């Protein structure tokens, strides 16, 4: 039984906190809703989530945690009990959360040592419908994680958190390189990419529509933000993509029109990543190459099996 409902937020720790905060609350288009001595909570204008990105000032860059939602406190408790029985390492027992919006949740390590939080009953943030040509994120779309053994990580998320496989990217020489995983009808809320080490691959943000996605892409280019790949349209998930680097070298994406699946009838596909129309149906993006791939490997994550201090 699936107890996870959706992706809530992705939390990052960075040494140059001010520069990172200026980027996300500035050109990237998020709204700072709270800050407190080296921690900033940033919301997306169209999202009911209290925040979609949390930034924390730290000596070392790391992924602090990934947060998923659950439908109720009893589902949070049931998931904690399930993980405990499976001897998953629990970081904090279910209880009241003191982050914006409150709620009830707990934290644990996944197979690769990432901190994961699951919460319910978080207060809904007052949000709004974005207008035509507003090129700021509506909501958080998905997160992609690098893992040395993508099959083991996929199995862990299927077994313990009820994720389902939507599609896989494979290459004739390299074998399988990415699993797209869902926790609701959205094609993927998370994907697992094959990388040399555990790290963040990219964080993706949904724009209002194609026009807004292109306006946003252009706005970032005019602001001098480095685009590493795009604009284009993937085959798996059928979503658009423009990938940029934030000031600390994390890959962040503007996307729109991610596919919604009929979960009862969907069967996963294996797409050949070496075919150009698989990476980009439109043919408008710069070709995928080893240099682009290396950018998405990111730095070795210093937060593996180390719970964030807050």
TrEMBL record:
InterPro entries: Glyas_Bleomycin-R_OHBP_Dase, Glyas_Fos-R_dOase_dom, MMCE/EMCE_epimerase, VOC_core
Keyword field contains Metal-binding: yes
Highest taxon in the source lineage: Bacteria
CDD domains in the record: BphC5-RrK37_N_like (cd08362)
Domain VOC: start-end pairs: 6-121, 139-257
Signal peptide (UniProt feature, chain positions): none
Record keyword Methyltransferase present: no
Key words, A-Z: Metal-binding
Segments traversing the membrane: none
Official protein name in the record: Oxidoreductase
Organism name: Nonomuraea composti
Source taxonomy: Bacteria, Bacillati, Actinomycetota, Actinomycetes, Streptosporangiales
């Amino acid at each position: 039984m699936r107890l996870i409902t959706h992706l809530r937020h992705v939390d990052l720790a960075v040494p140059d906190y001010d520069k990172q905060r200026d980027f996300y609350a500035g050109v990237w288009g998020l709204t700072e809703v709270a800050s407190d001595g080296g921690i900033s909570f940033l919301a997306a204008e169209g999202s009911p989530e209290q925040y979609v990105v949390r930034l924390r000032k730290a000596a070392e860059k790391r992924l602090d945690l990934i947060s998923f939602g659950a439908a109720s406190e009893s589902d949070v408790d049931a998931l904690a009990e399930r993980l405990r029985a499976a001897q998953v390492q629990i970081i904090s027992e279910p209880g009241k959360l003191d982050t914006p919006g409150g709620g009830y949740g707990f934290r644990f390590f996944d197979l690769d040592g990432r901190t994961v939080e699951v919460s319910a009953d978080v207060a809904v943030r007052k949000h709004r419908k974005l207008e035509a040509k507003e090129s700021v994120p509506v909501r958080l779309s998905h997160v992609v994680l690098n893992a040395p053994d993508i099959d083991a990580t996929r199995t862990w998320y299927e077994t313990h958190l009820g994720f389902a496989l939507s599609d896989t990217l494979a290459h004739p020489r390299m074998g399988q390189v990415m699993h797209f995983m869902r926790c609701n009808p959205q094609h993927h809320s998370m994907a697992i990419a094959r990388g040399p080490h555990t790290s963040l691959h990219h964080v993706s943000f949904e724009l209002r529509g194609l026009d807004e996605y292109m306006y946003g892409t252009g706005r970032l280019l005019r602001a001098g933000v480095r685009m590493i790949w795009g604009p284009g349209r993937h085959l798996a998930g059928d979503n658009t993509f423009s990938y940029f680097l934030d000031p600390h070298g994390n890959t962040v994406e503007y996307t729109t029109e991610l596919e919604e699946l009929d979960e009862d009838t969907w069967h996963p596909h294996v797409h050949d990543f070496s075919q150009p129309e698989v990476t980009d149906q439109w043919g408008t993006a710069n070709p995928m190459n080893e240099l682009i791939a290396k950018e998405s490997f990111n730095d070795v994550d210093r937060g593996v099996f180390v719970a964030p201090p807050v």
